[in-house]
Amino acid sequence: MLEWGMGGSTAHFADHLPPGATLTSIEHHPQWFQTVRTAIGNRAGVELLLREPSGPLGTNATADEDDPTHLTEYLHAADGRTFDVILVDGYARAACLLHAQTLLKPSGVIFLHDAQRPWYDNAKAQLTALGHCGSCEIYPEPHLWWGVPNQHAAHWHAPKSHTTPRATTTTSPIIVSFYTRNTPYEHEVRGLVESCQQLELSHEITPVNDLGSWERNCAFKARFLSEALHRLRRPILWVDADALLRLRPALIHQLAAAAHTSVLAASDFAIHRIDGWEFASGTAFFNNTPIAAELLARWTRLCEADPATWDQIHLASAWDQTVADRPLTTFWLPQTYTKVFDRPPESDLPPVIEHFQASRRSTGPERPKPAKPQTPPGVQAAIRAARCRTSAEVLSDSGETAQLDLQHRLSVALANVSTLADRLAAAPQSRAFTHSN
Fold it and tell me: How many helices and strands, by DSSP H and E, does the chain display?
């Protein structure tokens, strides 16, 4: 592991290095370097590097600090090596984020702390985002972002095998959906049921009464899923009634299973985004976690207060609210999990879930074509923090098994940097640690 910017996270990683692992941490500030080195002491596998600037630097936690002009040695201190994990959490983060691509192994991942700062947007746009974790109560501002170089995206989005265990357990996801009685969806849903049966996937697909409009029926989705998660007590994968599963959703099974391994934490939520921000809610994964339940509860309240607005707009708003004060972990699904039948594919990878959008195929006097939603005014800071290039720009046509276990090991550690820094603040050397950015 490589880390730019020493602090509480450095001490935590030093305390928890597994056998054979190494940590290289780079710092530019000499007094801060000495403080952290004193707190950590000598550790096997831990290399602490001081690379002082060649000139004055900008103010901490402002756009001025991102100027790499006087940080050449700091930026290139680890050149010539490659790493499985890179954390960017010091000065000149945009430059470090871009340079990290040259130091990363093909199956590795790069983390960026304080991803909500707008001056990192251009650098993030040069990579593919995999996940995002929002703030927590004791450290309410920063967002954590992780991603990979564009040429490595398929390693994460395209597992070699689409096979998944067929045994039903409380850790395996169940596909849930509903359809409205006495509507064309009674016919549409047959394809979904048959595809689940053919792939031997656990599913629960329920008829409900028509609530009078397409928008209101869609708004009911939030309460339906909230109640399903509470009742089933297992991960759930929502798939629209007019969709088909073409392959077993191996990626979803990996995301769900990781939560129940002692050293891992899985994503609470997974979804695909269209046009950079719009949530494609025809496929949505909610893990059996308290934070996923909170996301669903907030989504339900928004939908029931305003059922005429598209459900995915309310979902984006609920997500924005949740990541602002809870460490909700999101995995961004590739388009193959929400492939729309008449849209060109974003890669040559085969679709896993294909949507046929009956609402667009059955427009008429009694059902006007739904309007495309606009970005909710409040959904800005979190969307910026999670921003990335679209997979259409970056995915290649082949890949290897995603190292999701590695990703989630690291998301746990990094999402809790605030807690660890808090612990160090109680140590004898504590007061100086407040300098850390």
Answer: 16, 16
DSSP state of 21: -
What would the pLDDT profile of 172-229 be if each residue is shown by its tens digit? 899 999 999 988 888 989 999 999 999 999 999 999 999 988 888 999 999 999 999 9
* Of 87, 25, 31, 92, residue with least CA distance to 61: 92
- What DSSP element (H or E) covers 49? strand 46-50
pTM for the full model? 0.79
pLDDT over 50 (residue 411): no
pLDDT of 185: 87
Is pLDDT larger for residue 342 or for residue 30? Answer: 30
Tell me which residue of 148, 147, 144, 93 sits closest to 114, measured CA to CA: 144
Tokens found for residue 242: 């007019």
**pLDDT tens profile 126-185:** 998 888 999 877 777 889 999 999 888 777 766 545 555 555 556 789 999 999 998 888
On whether the CB atoms of residues 116 and 383 are closer than 8 A, the answer is no
In the numeric block, the tokens 């983060």 are attached to 93
Distance, in Å, from the CA atom of 336 to the CA atom of 354, rounded to the nearest integer, reads 8
Alpha-carbon gap, residue 225 to 175, rounded angstroms: 11
Compute, in degrees rounded to 10, the torsion defined by CA atoms 302, 305, 311, 314. -30
* Selection from 102-106, 158-162, 324-328 with the highest mean pLDDT: 102-106
| Residues 97, 88 contacting (CB under 8 angstroms) | yes
119, 108 Cβ separation under 8 angstroms: no
Nearest Cα to 63, choosing from 4, 5, 127, 117? Answer: 117
CB 86 within 8 A of CB 2: yes
Average pLDDT, the chain: 81
Closest CA to 252 of 336, 339, 178, 194: 336
CA distance 400 to 406: 14
10 Å Cβ neighbour count for 374? 9
pLDDT in the model for residue 389 = 42
What CA–CA distance (Å, rounded) separates 305 from 311?
A: 11
Q: Beta-carbon neighbour count of residue 54 at 10 Å?
A: 11
List all residues 6 or more positions away from 404 whose beta carbon is below 8 Å from its beta carbon: 156, 251, 254, 255, 258
CA distance 104 to 106: 6
Q: How far apart are the first and last CA of the chain?
A: 20
Paired with 428 in beta bridges are none
C-alpha distance from residue 287 to each of 222, 259, 349 (Å): 14, 8, 25
